[in-house]
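W.,

You were right to be curious about this one. When I first looked at the sequence I had no strong expectations either way, so I just let the prediction run and decided to look at it fresh. Below is the sequence, 347 residues in total, followed by the output.
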Amino acid sequence: MASIEYVLYPASPLLAVEGLVKHFALGGGLFARGAGRVHAVNGVSLTLAPGETLALVGESGCGKTTAARAIARLLRPDAGTVRFRGQDLAGLSGRALKSARRAMQMVFQDPFGSLNPRLPVGAIVAEPLAIHGLGTRAERRARVAELMAQVGLDARDRDRYPHEFSGGQRQRIAIARALAVGPELVIADEPLSALDVSIQSQILNLLKDLKEARRLAFLFITHDLAVVDHFADRVAVMYLGHVVEVAPRRALFAAPRHPYTRALIDAVPVPGAGKLRPGTAPRGDVPSPLAPPPGCPFHPRCPRALDVCHETMPPLVAEAGAPARRIACHNPLPSPAAGGPRQGTGP
């Protein structure tokens, strides 16, 4: 089979998401009318460069997976645009959409549920090649053997079924399937969370090696900041459907500017006295996405909330003097070079 080509677009973002919105009607049937809507994603904007890893982080239920599925066009957004290689995915169909989907592949959270239990793993990995008409049957078989070797599996196991593999091996199979057609972007939705801790590091190291070898771009969805610190180039922090801070990884961990980002970092357990000390979780509960609070969605839990935070949603804007960082906050934490903080008047 002809070698897979990886075409890169350095002059512009590989992926550009602007104002992405996705809401879901609650329930169904006779009593659905007026039951409300789940505000899952509320105006998410982000960009991703070729070969870059952007981690999308936040607590469970903040909208990360919905955003990822809408970006991949597995869900149709209610508003906003998703441009991939400069093309608006909403306007693509037929052959053009098929080409975009070849270049944008996805690895799902559950490595067992995402694999067809009726197919042997060789057929699972080869399926994208058949869908896109790549290679002869013999060439696909050779490509499957190559992919399985790349992800640390034995090609002689191609005739075994998913249930015969461990969770970590099944995730390797899912990764091999995603890589089969030579994508430029891999959307990885919590690819480690269903695995044992001892296996997570193996899969993470595999992804890092594949990223470097193929110059893959990753949109990496996770709630694990320890993983982010080892894998991401930049980080986008989500809260209740909104992106509240975007920054290079090192800058974000060294000096978070949004109070929610600070709370997430403080909540990470840290080693101490021969054991892990629990972190400090953000105070209060996450508001319901059925009835998000007015103004900034974090203000009911924020120790720095001002009166304006209760009324007006802050825009996501570039920080003065640091264009690589964007913050959606009326009263951000001070930068290392700034003076003392303002005092909040909210709860």
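Here's what jumped out at me. The radius of gyration is 21 Å. And, maybe more interesting for your project: Residues 58 and 131 are 35 Å apart (CA to CA).

Coffee later to discuss?

I.
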